[in-house]
Specification:
CATH superfamily of chain B: Immunoglobulins
Radius of gyration of chain B: 16 Å
Helix content of chain A: 40-55%
Strand content of chain A: 5-15%
CATH class of chain B: Mainly Beta
Structural class of chain A: mainly alpha
Strand order of the largest sheet of chain A: 6-5-7
Number of strands of chain B: 8
Largest sheet of chain A: 3 strands, mixed
Mean pLDDT of chain B: 95
Strand order of the largest sheet of chain B: 2-8-7-4-5
Oligomer: heterodimer
Helix content of chain B: under 10%
CATH architecture of chain B: Sandwich
Distance between the termini of chain A: 23 Å
Largest interface: A-B, 10 and 13 residues
CATH architecture of the largest domain in chain A: Orthogonal Bundle
CATH topology of the largest domain in chain A: Cytochrome Bc1 Complex, Chain D, domain 2
Low-confidence stretches of chain B: none
């Protein structure tokens, strides 16, 4: 810990010097697990993991303790298992996930030519299954789909969130921003009222994080399992007593697109652990 | 078969104390949670974990309903001789799983 503090202090000095020279550092200050983002020192954004207890942080940081690694291991097995009518696997086209999937998860949601709309990473996995493997698509939030998502997502760990700049995704994100700031439900609350206006304060006993979606899919201790960002969003919606859209609904994809933009530059922590 | 992840060094010096971490995928359904029909879902937990080192039991644990899903157990073993470590989990509904790992011990 002392060493880390020294490192931190040293890097702060380095950052100040660099700032003076009008040369902002672009590389991450630390690699995973120490660095949590590639943000400028004056950026006020904080990932949800910054708000967690040291024990939960340690659980996420250490792959031998992180229970989401069970899903990652299943995803790794699926990656190279031939399936479907084409008798192909993900590896038949993409090869080693470590190389080919680096950064991939950080660029979703994005516009897909094949689907003709903006899709999420899990929809992309199903698109590949349908078109290339000629296999049945996986059910949203099924263990197999979460495993694939966790495995692909982990290849982008410590990679900055890089939302797609294409026109359709930007429009989707703009719609998502509108949804984020619109009051919904019987409690008449918007996402922004908690996560922008009151982040860092408490809602009942729980700390309100800033709500950056840079660690999904997450192992949530309360869920006793892995869940997607859409599960989290639906959770909040039922929390404010609003109508909850089904998985894959356009509103949820738009919100995902906005959250990706909102967390732009923050480094991916997949698979995250959350309380 | 459930997915189990075991983390331990592949080799150790004789007399060294090594840490072993065993994580297994299991719902650990308590038997107290009501399902959508209002009735409690039947209990489905792992009851017993054992680890044997070269045929000799080094740790055993009884698990109860209050333990979380995907139980994680970490413990220490003194490396004595090259041999096989056997990990077994047994539970409700005939759940039984065994994993093996080799430990190479150098003098």
């Amino acid at each position: 810990m002392k060493r880390l503090a020294t490192l931190l202090a040293a890097s702060c000095v380095a950052a100040t010097v660099a700032q003076a020279a009008a040369q902002m550092p672009t590389a991450p200050i630390f690699a995973w697990p120490f660095g949590t983002n590639t943000l400028q020192p004056d950026d006020a954004r904080k990932p949800g993991s910054d708000y967690m207890s040291p024990a939960t942080q340690a659980m996420q940081r250490d792959d031998t303790q992180n229970p989401a690694m069970l899903w990652v291991a299943n995803g790794e097995a699926q990656w190279s298992a031939a399936t479907g009518a084409a008798n192909k696997s993900c590896a038949s086209c993409h090869g080693e996930a470590k190389a080919s999937m680096r950064g991939a998860a950080a660029k979703f949601p994005r516009f897909s030519q094949a689907a003709g709309r903006v899709i999420t990473l899990s929809e992309q996995i199903n698109q590949c299954r349908k078109d290339k493997l000629k296999a049945a698509t996986l059910k949203p939030e099924s263990e197999d789909l979460l495993a694939m998502e966790a495995y692909v997502g982990m290849q982008s760990r410590a990679y900055p969130m890089s939302p797609s700049p294409d026109e359709q995704t930007r429009q989707s994100a703009a719609r998502g921003q509108k949804l984020f700031t619109t009051r919904i439900g019987q409690l008449n609350l918007s996402c922004a009222q908690c996560h922008d206006d009151n982040a860092g304060k408490k809602l009942a006993g729980a700390l309100i994080p800033q709500g950056h979606a840079n660690a999904y899919p997450i192992y949530r201790l309360e869920w006793q399992g892995v869940g997607s960002l859409q599960r989290r969003l639906r959770n909040c919606m039922s929390g404010v007593r609003a109508e909850v859209p089904p998985y894959g609904a356009p509103d949820l994809v738009d919100l995902e697109a906005y959250l990706a933009l909102r967390a732009k530059g923050m480094s991916l922590e997949t698979p995250g652990v959350r309380p | 078969m459930a997915r189990a992840l075991i983390h331990m060094p592949a080799s150790a010096k004789a007399g060294d104390i090594i840490e072993i971490r065993a994580l297994i995928a299991h719902p650990m359904e308590t038997g107290f949670r009501p399902g959508s029909d209002g009735k409690p879902a039947p209990r489905d937990i792992i009851r017993r974990f054992t680890c044997e080192y070269a045929g000799k039991q080094v740790i055993t644990a009884e698990l109860h309903p209050a333990m979380s899903a995907n139980p994680y157990l970490a413990f220490f073993v003194r490396a004595t001789a090259t041999g096989k470590l056997t990990f077994t989990w047994q539970g409700d509904n005939g759940f039984a799983q065994a994993e093996e790992r080799e430990l190479k011990v150098t003098s």
